[in-house]
Amino acid sequence: MGLGKTIQSIAFLQEISNLSIRGPFLVIAPLSTITNWEREFNTWTHMNTIVYHGSLASRQMIQQYEMYCKDLRGRLIPGAYKFDALITTFEMILSDCPELREIEWRCVVIDEAHRLKNRHCKLLDSLKHMDLEHKVLLTGTPLQNSVEELFSLLHFLEPSQFPSEAEFLKDFGDLKTEEQVQKLQALLKPMMLRRLKEDVEKNLAPKQETIIEVELTTIQKKFYRAILEKNFSFLAKGVGHSNMPNLLNTMMELRKCCNHPYLINGAEEKIIAELRDSWPQAVATGELQLQALVRSAGKLVLIDKLLPKLKAGGHKVLIFSQMVRCLDILEDYLIHKRYLYERLDGRVRGNLRQAAIDRFSRSEPDRFVFLLCTRAGGLGINLTAADTCIIFDSDWNPQNDLQAQARCHRIGQSKAVKVYRLITRNSYEREMFDKASLKLGLDKAVLQSM
């Protein structure tokens, strides 16, 4: 993560192109990174590269003018293309574009290839219907939850060498002995080029992670207990019938409560009304809303104390959360406090994503905070302008949090990076984090010692 996989892959494609393997080449990457892929192709090679993404009309325009070679009569010349490399997104592959299936691709490079970890996912099924001569998978986290995920990647690369999942799991499913680990490593070595940051950049600034245990506020404790006890009378007090909290997934509701009670349906109106009653003196509406927002959640109380100190120290901050609604709450807080920020989640369109990254990455200190959804903003992008990373809530998969941290702790980072992970003390969130952390042991056993 942050080790130059993009540039190495582009150099590889350029080299085989120099050896008369002219392509066409296909690059499949997350939406957030396709602009950067195009930029790096133009910087490091002379290959004609096109980005294939967007509306049906824009894709038809690309097909008409940028993809196919035509003879003097305007007829398509079979197997002749104007481009050397085509960059597209996972979404385009999933949408089953027949024009991409008809091309004989000499090489495909799949960025963030752990997207293929589920052997029954639709993305893998779509790729199997494409003509791919050579395959290159790029990922910083090939082994996340189980050995089955690793088999999925190996089967896609070499279906003849790894035909049976049952046989593979019979040999390596439990990984209880050192002999099993060594045998698996011997299988992986010819197929895997693995580098660590310390192998590539000896002078990379250090990363320090601090776990900060946050107390539940009084308000949070009331909601937390009500959710655990399924106390509908408390949760429904002052709430309209259509805005009742959903307790079908108790664990998710507890996670929401740990982050901020406003994530629970109907809680915001109830909390603001109670605070207004307790403050008889006239208070401006904006100030009342800010006080309610901050006082309601222990994590936001901490953020409110931490951000002014970070800003005074000239730091730039990334804040990651699993929940888009949680980012909405943080965005409201930043607006109230008049901190300039950028935001990237699944709702932000591709061209606006790179623009937000570029604004934040400029040397001017005006953009102080970048709000990111862990899944959408935690892959493939470079945010070394920041030197502080706040994990507002942890992922069930710890590799996703490592990916998020690697947005700023990567080659090109000149400052020491501090990571603050916020965890609610004595809560379901703490228990979830402890269990998720055990998953890192599999990665350490198989890959770190290779």
TrEMBL record:
<keyword id="KW-0378">Hydrolase</keyword>
<dbReference type="InterPro" id="IPR001650">
    <property type="entry name" value="Helicase_C-like"/>
</dbReference>
<dbReference type="InterPro" id="IPR049730">
    <property type="entry name" value="SNF2/RAD54-like_C"/>
</dbReference>
<keyword id="KW-0539">Nucleus</keyword>
<keyword id="KW-0067">ATP-binding</keyword>
<keyword id="KW-0547">Nucleotide-binding</keyword>
<protein>
    <submittedName>
        <fullName>CHD8 protein</fullName>
    </submittedName>
</protein>
<keyword id="KW-0677">Repeat</keyword>
<feature type="domain" description="Helicase C-terminal">
    <location>
        <begin position="302"/>
        <end position="450"/>
    </location>
</feature>
<dbReference type="GO" id="GO:0005524">
    <property type="term" value="F:ATP binding"/>
</dbReference>
<comment type="similarity">
    <text>Belongs to the SNF2/RAD54 helicase family.</text>
</comment>
<dbReference type="InterPro" id="IPR000330">
    <property type="entry name" value="SNF2_N"/>
</dbReference>
<dbReference type="Pfam" id="PF00176">
    <property type="entry name" value="SNF2-rel_dom"/>
</dbReference>
<dbReference type="GO" id="GO:0005634">
    <property type="term" value="C:nucleus"/>
</dbReference>
<dbReference type="Pfam" id="PF00271">
    <property type="entry name" value="Helicase_C"/>
</dbReference>
<dbReference type="GO" id="GO:0016787">
    <property type="term" value="F:hydrolase activity"/>
</dbReference>
<dbReference type="InterPro" id="IPR027417">
    <property type="entry name" value="P-loop_NTPase"/>
</dbReference>
<dbReference type="InterPro" id="IPR014001">
    <property type="entry name" value="Helicase_ATP-bd"/>
</dbReference>
<dbReference type="InterPro" id="IPR038718">
    <property type="entry name" value="SNF2-like_sf"/>
</dbReference>
<feature type="domain" description="Helicase ATP-binding">
    <location>
        <begin position="1"/>
        <end position="160"/>
    </location>
</feature>
<dbReference type="GO" id="GO:0006325">
    <property type="term" value="P:chromatin organization"/>
</dbReference>
<keyword id="KW-0156">Chromatin regulator</keyword>
<dbReference type="InterPro" id="IPR051493">
    <property type="entry name" value="CHD"/>
</dbReference>
